[in-house]
Amino acid sequence: MENTGLITFEYVNTVIKERPKEIHKGQCGRVLIIAGSVGMAGAAVLAARGALKSGAGLVRIAAPEELFDILQTAVPQATCMSISEVISLRSAEIYKAIAIGPGMGVDEKNYFLIKEILREYDGPVVLDADGLNSLARFDENLENIRQRKSPTILTPHPGEADRLLAALGENSVKLLGRIKSAELLAEKTGAVVLLKGAGTLVTFKGNGTYINTTGNPGMATGGSGDVLTGVIAAIAASGVEAFSAVKAGAFIHGMAGDIAEERHGQWGMTSVDIEEALPAAFKKIVGK
Ligand SMILES: NC(=O)C1=CN([C@@H]2O[C@H](COP(=O)(O)OP(=O)(O)OC[C@H]3O[C@@H](n4cnc5c(N)ncnc54)[C@H](O)[C@@H]3O)[C@@H](O)[C@H]2O)[C@@H](O)CC1
Ligand SMILES: Nc1ncnc2c1ncn2[C@@H]1O[C@H](COP(=O)(O)OP(=O)(O)O)[C@@H](O)[C@H]1O
């Protein structure tokens, strides 16, 4: 077992810093979010808003064209591109981080796109939801993640973690336990792994396993994980190295959940309330 510790305010305070006076949007991190499908445009909206409210300078959403009207109305700050264009974007260097998966659906076409990004893009990639499910279904032994040299971030909930573990020929989270499951995934893939749920875990081979100290049961509501994807992608795009970005992202997302709980209560809060509380959470961390 890796060394364990807690993700605390004091730690996150050293990761997220006040912005330099002369900074411009091109230096605040360009994020590409590949997400959404017909019936799940909301997942792309939540991930994009999560990134924008976590300081991303520019956010682009790659999605099916049928979703553009919804996306540009719900997130006017973001630009859109057709998901069919992404494949020709061989080296997407203009993006400082790419997030793939929320509400994307699972099929072979999406799998080929994910494979291409994992091979060609040499920045941090956040894989969530159907990004993980596609790999679990089509990528034997998760070879495309294992081969990667640049940072890969996996953010499964226990159901998604079970699918990834099965692809690796391993037992389920229930049988292995949360810590062992997260560490096994990290060890076998070389990725930074965040295992969601009460007491979110963040682990990276040889760097220890950390338990998040923020968050509450009110966050068990559809779309709250999609917001987290955007938060982590934005922090990674700002230049913070992957393991620290994931730890800080988990903490701030949970903190936004705690602010949403204060404002709306555990029963009534939704993922939009979490996303809307992100600015207050960042302000508490940075003091501005
Ligand atoms: N507005 C939208 O467009 C939304 C789209 N979403 C997308 O819907 C797709 C399917 O995701 P789902 O997560 O609903 O479906 P999944 O089939 O991946 O997961 C659902 C099941 O996973 C297990 N699970 C989840 N969290 C768990 C936990 N903390 N402990 C134990 N078991 C747990 C449970 O068995 C649960 O029924 C994803 O692409 C996701 O991004 C969802 O995020 C909801 C909102
Ligand atoms: N009981 C809980 N306590 C703290 N955080 C929780 C709890 N339940 C869910 N969460 C958090 O809410 C988010 C749920 O993400 P996920 O399961 O991917 O949902 P979705 O797919 O609907 O977006 C995760 O960040 C998870 O850690």
TrEMBL record:
| Residue ranges annotated for the YjeF C-terminal domain, each copy included | 8-285
From what superkingdom does this record's organism come? Bacteria
EC annotation?
Answer: 4.2.1.136
Q: Which cofactor does it need?
A: Mg(2+)
Which parts of the sequence bind AMP?
A: K196, G197, A198, G199, T200, G225
Which molecular function terms from Gene Ontology are attached? ADP-dependent NAD(P)H-hydrate dehydratase activity; ATP binding; NAD(P)HX epimerase activity
Quote the catalytic activity from the record: (6S)-NADPHX + ADP = AMP + phosphate + NADPH + H(+); (6S)-NADHX + ADP = AMP + phosphate + NADH + H(+)
Q: Where would you find the membrane-spanning parts of this chain?
A: none
Single GO biological process annotation from the record: metabolite repair
Which Gene3D superfamilies does the annotation name? 3.40.1190.20
Q: Which UniProt keywords apply?
A: ATP-binding, Lyase, NAD, NADP, Nucleotide-binding
Q: Which SUPFAM superfamilies match?
A: Ribokinase-like
Q: Record-annotated residues binding (6S)-NADPHX?
A: A43, G103, H157, D226
Establish whether keyword Transcription regulation is in the entry: no
Q: Which family does the record claim for this protein? A: Belongs to the NnrD/CARKD family.
Kindly state the subunit structure of this protein: Homotetramer.
Its annotated function is as follows:
Catalyzes the dehydration of the S-form of NAD(P)HX at the expense of ADP, which is converted to AMP. Together with NAD(P)HX epimerase, which catalyzes the epimerization of the S- and R-forms, the enzyme allows the repair of both epimers of NAD(P)HX, a damaged form of NAD(P)H that is a result of enzymatic or heat-dependent hydration.
- Per its record, how is this protein called by name? ADP-dependent (S)-NAD(P)H-hydrate dehydratase
Q: Which gene encodes it?
A: nnrD
